[in-house]
Amino acid sequence: MGVSFDKVDGAMWLDFDVQPAANPVSATDRAARLADPGFGRVFTDHMAIVRYSQGKGWHGARVESRANFPLDPATAVLHYAQEIFEGLKAYKREDGGVNLFRPDANARRFRDSADRMAMAPLPEPVFIEAVEQIVRIDRDWIPGGEGSLYLRPFMIANEVFLGVKPSADYIFAVIASPVGSYFKGGPAPVSIWVSENYTRAAIGGTGAVKCGGNYAASLRAQAEAIEHGCDQVVFLDAVERRYIEELGGMNVFFVFDDGTLSTPPLGTILPGITRDSIIALAREAGTPVREAPYTIEEWRADAASGKLKEAFACGTAAVISPIGKVCSASGDFTIGGGAAGPVAMGLRKKLVDIQYGRAADSHGWIRKVL
Ligand code: PLP
Ligand code: COI
User: Fold this and answer.
1) 227-249 confidence digits (pLDDT tens)
2) Cβ atoms within 10 A of the Cβ of 136, count?
3) Which atom of ligand 2 is nearest to the CA of 317?
4) Domains, the chain
5) What's the CA-to-centroid distance between 152 and ligand 1, angstroms?
6) Rounded to the nearest whole angstrom, what is the distance from the C-alpha of residue 343 to the centroid of ligand 2?
7) pTM for the complete prediction?
8) Which one of 63, 247, 262, 305 counts the least CB within 10 Å of its CB?
9) Helix (H) and strand (E) counts for the chain?
10) Residues 293/265, Cβ–Cβ less than 8 Å
């Protein structure tokens, strides 16, 4: 049973009223902030905003100075977490132009997330236009080299009402953050903590969509990973508590000695756009890829026997990060001697070269914004 919303024609178009920031960050301050941006702490001058209200539909599209949202204390998102988001990046090409990577896939997933969370679906062209507007107006914030501009589209339930029901009002916005590497030290192997106390998603739940609540629920497990000296948590399935699902913010792949790849099947995990791209690139290169369940017991045994050569995590923020070590309450093990493997690093190069425009885009994944 769907929730009905008016005026949400998929082909709908909105013109953005663009009001450049009156007091943008100076070129000197911007250069200082871009010197070592880390991940998600430096922000650009602008944001895009589109509002939805029942009866009026999507309206009021604006690009304006990045600013606080005034929210009534009874705003629905503050109480029941009706919120979704996306993450994608803009990459500076060597010719000075700018690429987006598969923004149409993010726009589609955003609609799927809205549907699951009973929120108003945002027309995909409006999502893409809002992202492009921010890339264009904040182009001076895109780092060179291996940095990128991380774009964060999100939507919050904005009705002022304490009843539990789908909000009648929403705010969609896009903010942007210049980023270096998600993990300190770049694509060095990361260590993973297997969460045996907490799960991330159950069948029929929200694991396959990008809602803030999934991340709130993962934080205790991630804190446990840090307490055990690990970089990231990996979750097991909620029924048998054996099958590998995904990390807190990344999908996972396994590389075997027969030259095949395997990744957990879709269902309760986020359908990662990086995951989908890696499957396509690997298959094209003649590497068989299975989307098949894999247990923690198999992972441990295959790492010990040498059948498993590599494991890696992937996502927009993390790109491809080799997994060197797996820790759990029942003991630790290393993969491939704890070093970055050639398959992970080869796929990483292939993907990144397409994203930065250094390799041909035979899939139509690149959208040139500038
Ligand atoms: N899984 C989770 C839980 C994530 O948060 C992300 C990041 O967005 C991913 C997987 C990877 O998805 P994508 O490759 O689309 O960034
Ligand atoms: C991403 O890779 O875009 C993510 O969302 C991961 C994390 C920053 C939430």
Assistant:
1) 999 999 999 999 999 999 999 99
2) 15
3) 2
4) 5-179 (3.30.470.10), 190-355 (3.20.10.10)
5) 13
6) 23
7) 0.96
8) 305
9) 8, 18
10) yes
